[in-house]
């Protein structure tokens, strides 16, 4: 029969503790890296959504100018919010039909600019005494 000394048991217990600590540290690092990656991905989605909403808002502004019969007053560039820049391109394709191209750029602090483009064609007509805009495609 082999007798184990207390020192050997302490060594095995110490080695087991070191291995478990190394495994738990590796698991913790993996979880933190995954969390940071997920956070960065959601932040990018948020910035892209802001740029898309800027483009949509700018398109509505341009349509508002068309409804007021103020095509000449549509600005070529506008800053709707401090971190944003929006450019408008409005072309009359036929009588009372317009193509609107919007390019929006949103730049958050210390981030790369995020861009979004939006195009649409609109027919302006009078219905029940009011001017209305009908979307007729992209």
Compile the SSE list and pairings.
Elements: H1 6-67, E1 77-78, E2 84-94, E3 97-106, E4 114-127, E5 130-137
Antiparallel strand pairs: 1-2, 2-3, 3-4, 4-5
Structure explained in plain terms:
- The protein has 1 helix and 5 strands.
- It is of the alpha+beta class and 138 residues long.
- It has a 5-stranded antiparallel β-sheet with strand order 1-2-3-4-5.
- Strand 4 (114-127) and strand 5 form a beta hairpin.
- The chain is rod-shaped and about 105 Å long.
- The model has no long low-confidence stretch (mean pLDDT 88).
Mean pLDDT across all amino acids: 88
* Backbone structural class: alpha+beta
Rg on CA atoms, Å: 30 Å
- Secondary-structure element sequence? HEEEEE
Number of helices: 1
Report the sheet with the most strands, covering strand number, pairing sense and barrel closure: 5 strands, antiparallel
Classify the beta-strand content into a percent band: 25-35%
Percentage of residues assigned to helices: 40-55%
In short:
By secondary structure, this protein is an alpha+beta fold.
Features:
single chain, 138 residues, alpha+beta, five-stranded antiparallel β-sheet, 33% strand
